[in-house]
Design goal:
The structure holds three protein chains of three kinds.
Chain A lengths: L17 H16 L1 H18 L1 H4 L41 H37 L1 H16 L2 H15 L2 H18 L2 H16 L2 H8 L4 H37 L11 H8 L8 H28 L7
Helix pairs in contact in A: 2-4, 2-12, 4-5, 4-7, 4-8, 4-10, 4-11, 4-12, 5-8, 6-7, 8-10, 9-10, 10-11, 10-12, 11-12
Chain B lengths: L1 H29 L3 H4 L6 H11 L5 H13 L13 H36 L4 H15 L2 H15 L12 E2 L4 E2 L4 H35 L1 H8 L4 H39 L4 H10 L3 H29 L14
Chain C lengths: L20 E6 L14 H7 L7 E3 L5 E3 L2 E7 L4 E6 L13 H11 L13 E8 L2 E6 L6 H4 L8 H6 L12 H4 L7 E7 L3 E6 L13 E6 L3 H9 L5 E3 L6 H6 L3 E16 L19 H10 L2 H6 L7 E2 L23 H10 L7 E7 L6 H13 L4 E7 L1 H9 L5 E6 L7 H8 L17 H12 L3 H17 L3 E14 L2 E2 L14 E2 L1
Parallel strand pairs in C: 1-10, 1-11, 14-15, 14-16
Antiparallel strand pairs in C: 2-3, 4-5, 5-7, 6-7, 8-9, 9-10, 11-17, 12-16, 12-17, 13-17, 18-19
Classes of the chains: A mainly alpha, B mainly alpha, C alpha+beta.
């Protein structure tokens, strides 16, 4: 496999030292000039803060079963429950949980799963991608063939398989506790290939550049060259992919919930809330579906818009 | 070329074997088919006899080996639920999925290319910025939710379109089609939108990026300097150069459309292979699950292989790297 | 083996737009059309339109003559003699005779037939003449005629000609896709999992049949999609309607809700034969103490569950069968009251004043809102100090894990196949052996109940039988062997322009449908 003109989309192409330069000058400038990016960033920050400080903000603790009263079930937003007199800003769900609090707590889980899964995918993908490109030979063949096996299966199917096996080998008494970790594992492992392929592609380009050749000539070790010289230069596309993957991971978690392999109902994520909420679409309790869905949309959309902006910002060619 | 082909085919077969192995090892955990096959008055003896008949009491490797042996001859066994050959059932269900995939793919392609060109040419216009932002909504909501919302709006509230199924289908002997009846065509609309939205966004963004790249190249600059009209430049020159990667991506996306059809088919009760697979999971119909997963693998590996070989044929120096082409 | 139906060139769905077409949807497609291969409601309910038994159930569950016109006990409880209806033909035109009944017995009772348990007490079936059948039993069996309404009669000649002498369970046989019954409708198109079409059988002997000229059945397993299909007029009837959508269906124009009480009782069971709990650190197994189980009974706020999660659609249950079942114990009309203080007292008496942790196992796709009910139960138990770890899983994993004892407390629904109180005692309460107590996952064992069960099964005298059933019901409640919660509601949705009958066993009869 030899190096040739790059036909990949721009976000996959790496330019030397682009990251640092962009970060220092263009990056901030571009951010302050983009209302979309600023609004998106604002929304993401607000939502993340809401999730992080959920225990302080949320009026109820929906994860504490002893605090729930079933008679509070299905209270419409802003009205007093006919039995208990309790009022919920965004209404209550079928279990009598405050929807607002549940969303804040659920977002914690969704974001945690999303971040952790992307981190996992990124770590695996970048490491394997670098190794594949730098070492080459049979190591590369094996890694890229494994990537092929994985790509053979759509990510959702891969995640279902991993979830199924993990649940199967977990003793039932621990399933509830490990479900979140299993989700992270399932989504993370189903998503590393993108990173590996991109990093490998970028590394192959970088590897033959003069500065790497020079580093090699002065006797730097392979590891050092990979970590100190190549890695920083391929991080640009990785960052873009990571942002978009975060949105994808959060949505994948919701999709998995719909297929019955999500966070447990006693500690629901946004996806679980939507899965539960859609059962009440015809019955008039719209708030159980709409509020979590709107939150998910706001979160994923803002992250996607940020990713979009980031791609353009890190790739100055595309700017006017 | 021959050596390359042999190596890639060999690797593809290995990939299939591994896939089959992973899929098969999962079946141990999806549940026990016995309970769906016996009524509530079954005895322990009934359970053991059935397990013996199905070969479920054999060690895992024996089961896997038997599966491979039969599969190599095109025999995927009998569905636990229907008792009929799995191949026969898949063939029955495939037209529904392929027609849905075709329509949603076509929609994604036409919509994606059109909007992509528009947003590239009017790069900083308000409309194209809005399109860019709005298109992200399609990828910021889970597919099932989009489907459920579409059903609620267009089937229940407005009553314009059917909420489930394929409508009336015409049996052509080897193929059942929904293209020949009004109700069949109407039934395609909502599922196709649900399924195609994601791909459309993807293609639109790809076309836009590629267009912007090409429009900046010397070749276009030269055309512009020669005094060619904008329209001619945009369509005759820029678009033509954009289409190669777009077609590659679309080809690769076809596979993931079929896989993603699982969710769409479940929501719309669309009688294709995706729904068959989900039902098979519910009923622990292992032969159907195995055959479906193998079919998907063969399809993906096949597409991958063809694309690789094409790249190789066009330009042997071309590095095979289509990472950007993979959605999720 | 049947070849693919795809070889037939036809307009599969060229439906005449006549008013007598009736389209209905249910969650589950019958897995087979073989009447003896799968003893389950979706199969037997559907086939009840195509095949018939010697007796059948009327609209209110009473037993009435079908292929038999009369029956009487033989001697002193030796068995039953059935006189068969004359002039009945199968869909293919062949005559129905006693030979078909004997054949259907042999087929339905054969090893591998899923219906074999119905004939566990039968020693032999003979045909003294063409229109008489004698069925002999080991012990007197007073409810035998009641227990065979779902035993469907197949044509012996047709079965033999097509190699379908035995029910096809693991491998599809001719009878899996083809039918030849005596019933009011015949199957004219069968696409498993997609659609099945019924048309009236002109040669049917009976009278009581509505005006449907074509019945199209479609399985829709996503209940929200089914509701959407009903509301938008794409089908005339769906079952079940999710409880949360009942009001919507009731309020919508052109459709209505048909409400009933199903035979299925939802209850909690406990692990009683294990030495320790799997979901906690407690020494020993607290659920072996009846007071702990009673505490659970008092801690679960059933009225609140019925009010919110079940939307007022279900009836509370005090015993293992609902009040409409034969053998229901009138002496026990009320379930233990919701009383968290009493629950805490009982726990303290049993030595667990601070409660304990355990694993609560639930299915999440088997019963109506099963996961929600379990979730609410976790909250209610938490309020008396019990820390339940909920493990809600799909039913495909549920039964295997219950068999492997992977639970401390679990949710179970039981629908008595015989519509008699003896049924749950036999399967859920009797000490586990190879044939009985097969669903007694908790390993409960009570000598008195084991002693009474065979007597109940063979007692001819109704009062004496009821007295024994009352005694057993009392023991089950005192011991809190199970904590019955409620009887599941039966909710169907139908278009306003069709008349139909909802039977308590959730069977759907096309012949009771009239399209106006």
């Amino acid at each position: 496999m030899t190096d040739t003109p790059d036909h990949r989309p721009p976000e996959m192409q790496a330019r030397p030292s682009r990251l640092r330069r962009a970060w220092e000058s263009d990056f901030i400038y571009s951010f302050t000039r983009s209302p979309v990016a600023m609004v998106s960033a604002f929304v993401v920050v607000v939502l993340v803060l809401g999730a992080v400080f959920a225990p302080l903000i949320a009026p109820y603790d929906p994860f504490n079963p002893a605090s729930l009263n079933l008679m509070n079930g299905f209270t419409p937003p802003g009205t007093a429950n006919q039995f208990t007199g309790d009022v919920f800003v965004m209404g209550s769900d079928d279990q009598g949980r405050d929807v607002f609090s549940t969303i804040l707590y659920g977002m914690r889980i969704s974001l945690f799963v999303g971040f952790a899964a992307v981190l996992l995918a990124m770590t695996i993908g970048v490491t394997l991608g670098l190794i594949a490109a730098y070492v080459g030979g049979w190591v590369e063949t094996i890694i890229m063939r494994i990537a092929d096996v994985q790509l053979t299966f759509p990510a959702i199917l891969v995640a279902m398989l991993i979830f199924g096996i993990a649940q199967g080998i977990t003793p039932p008494e621990y399933r509830d506790q490990v479900a979140i970790w299993v989700l992270i594992l399932a989504i993370g492992l189903s998503d590393w290939v993108q990173f590996a392929r991109v990093v490998r592609g970028a590394t192959l380009v970088e590897k033959n550049r003069e500065y790497v050749q020079a580093a090699r000539l002065v006797g730097r070790s392979g590891n050092a060259i990979m970590l100190r010289h190549i890695l920083p230069n391929v991080l640009n596309p990785v960052l873009v992919i990571a942002t978009i993957s975060l949105a994808l991971a959060i949505i994948a978690e919701a999709t998995l919930s719909f297929l019955g392999v999500g966070a447990p109902p006693t500690k629901p994520s946004l996806g679980t809330l939507i899965r539960i909420g859609q059962e009440f679409m015809f019955s008039g309790e719209w708030w159980i579906l709409i509020f979590p869905s709107a939150t998910l949309l706001a979160l994923a959309l803002s992250i996607n818009l940020l990713g979009d902006w980031l791609r353009d910002a890190l790739n100055p060619k595309l700017r006017a | 070329m021959l050596a390359f082909t042999i190596r890639r085919v060999g690797q593809s077969i290995l990939v299939l074997l591994v896939t089959g192995f992973v899929a098969f090892s999962m079946f141990t955990y999806v549940g026990d088919p016995i309970d769906n096959m016996l009524g509530q008055e079954r005895t322990q003896a009934d359970i053991e006899r059935l397990r013996d008949q199905l070969g479920l009491d054999q060690p895992f490797f024996v089961q896997y080996w038997n599966f491979l042996k039969e599969a190599a001859q095109g025999n995927f066994g009998l569905s636990y639920r229907q008792g009929r050959p799995v191949g026969e059932i898949l063939v029955e269900r495939l037209p529904a999925t392929l027609e849905l995939a075709f329509v949603s793919g076509l929609m994604a392609l036409i919509g994606g290319i059109g909007l992509g060109i528009f947003t590239a040419i009017r790069k900083s216009g308000a409309l194209s910025s809005s399109i860019m932002a709005l298109s992200l909504i399609g990828v910021s909501l889970p597919t099932f939710l989009i489907g459920v919302l579409l059903i609620y709006i267009f089937a229940v509230e407005l009553g314009w379109l059917p909420s489930f199924g394929r409508g009336q289908v015409v049996d052509l002997g080897f193929w059942t089609t929904g293209f020949l009846t009004v109700s069949g065509l109407k039934a395609l609309i909502l599922p196709a939108i649900t399924l195609g939205l994601y791909q459309m966004t993807l293609i639109m963004r790809l076309v836009r990026t590629e267009m912007l790249e090409v429009l900046r190249t010397d070749y276009i600059r030269f055309a512009r300097a020669r005094g060619l009209r904008e329209r001619a430049i945009n369509f005759r020159h820029a678009l033509k150069n954009t289409l190669v990667p777009v077609i590659t991506v679309t080809g690769l996306q076809l596979g993931s459309i079929i896989a993603f059809a699982i969710i769409t088919e479940t929501v719309f009760q669309w009688p294709g292979v995706g729904l068959l697979f989900i039902n098979a999971i519910q009923f622990v119909d292992i032969p159907v699950m195995a055959a479906y997963l193998m079919m998907i693998s063969v399809m993906f590996v096949g597409i991958n292989l063809i694309v690789d070989l094409l790249y190789f044929a066009i330009d042997p120096r071309l590095r095979v790297d289509r990472s950007a082409a993979k959605g999720h | 083996m049947i070849r693919s139906t795809l070889t037939v060139l036809a307009f599969a769905a060229a439906v005449p737009a006549s008013a007598e077409t009736f389209r209905w949807a249910s969650q589950t497609d019958p897995s087979t059309l073989d009447p003896h291969a799968n003893n389950s409601t979706p199969v037997l309910s559907f086939l009840g339109n195509v095949y018939e038994g010697l007796v059948r159930r009327d609209r209110v569950m009473g037993i009435e003559p079908a292929l038999a016109t009369a029956w009487e006990p033989i001697g002193d409880g030796e068995g039953w003699r059935f006189s068969l209806r004359e002039g009945v033909t199968f869909h293919d035109g062949s005559d129905f005779t006693a030979e078909d009944v004997v054949f259907s017995y042999e087929r339905a009772a054969s090893e591998g037939a899923d219906t074999a348990s119905w004939f566990a007490g039968v020693t032999d079936v003979t045909a003294p003449d063409d229109y008489t059948v004698e069925i002999r039993t080991k012990a007197p069996n007073p409810i035998f005629p009641d227990s065979i309404a779902n035993w469907l009669i197949m044509d012996s000649g047709w079965a033999e000609a097509n190699g379908a002498e035995r029910p096809a369970t693991t491998e599809a046989g001719y009878a899996t896709l083809n039918t030849n019954g005596t019933g009011p409708y015949r199957v004219t198109d069968r696409q498993p999992g997609l659609r099945t079409v019924l048309e009236p059988f002109d040669g049917w002997w009976g009278e009581d049949r509505g005006n449907v000229t074509e019945g199209i059945f479609t399985p829709i397993d996503n209940s929200a999609t089914a509701v959407a299909a009903l509301l938008s007029g794409e089908v005339e009837m769906i079952e079940p309607v999710p409880v949360q959508d009942a009001d919507r269906v009731e309020a919508a124009a052109n459709v209505r809700l048909i409400r009933g009480v199903e035979a299925r009782v939802i209850m909690y069971g406990f692990s009683m034969d294990k030495d320790t709990l799997i979901g906690g650190e407690t020494d020993g197994n607290p659920f072996q103490d009846a007071r702990v189980r009673q505490a659970v009974a008092h801690a679960v706020n059933v009225p609140a569950i019925l009010q919110t999660i079940m939307r007022g659609s279900a009836e509370p249950a005090s015993q293992l069968v609902g009040s409409a079942m034969r053998g229901y114990s009138d002496a026990l009309p009320d379930r233990p009251a919701y009383d968290p203080e009493r629950a805490q007292e009982l726990l303290a008496e049993a030595g667990y004043p601070d409660g304990f942790s355990f694993l609560l196992k639930c299915p999440n796709d088997r019963y109506i809102n099963d996961e929600s009910v379990c979730q609410a139960t976790v909250a209610m138990l938490a309020q008396v100090g019990l820390d339940a770890q909920l493990d809600a899983i799909p039913v495909r994993n549920y039964w295997p894990e219950l068999r492997e004892d992977q639970f401390d407390m679990y949710l179970l629904g039981w629908s008595p196949g015989t519509f008699d109180a003896e049924h749950p005692i036999r399967f859920l309460v009797a000490t586990q052996t190879d044939r009985i107590g097969t669903w007694n996952f908790g390993g409960y064992s009570n000598d008195r109940i084991d002693e009474l069960l065979p007597q109940v099964q063979s007692e001819i005298d109704e009062d004496a039988r009821q007295a024994m059933l009352d005694e057993i019901a009392q023991i089950v409640q005192d011991d809190a062997v199970y904590v019955p919660l409620y009887v599941q509601p039966l909710l169907w949705g139908a278009a306003d322009n069709v008349d139909l009958t909802q039977r308590e066993d959730n069977f759907f009869n096309l012949r009771w449908v009239t399209v106006n």
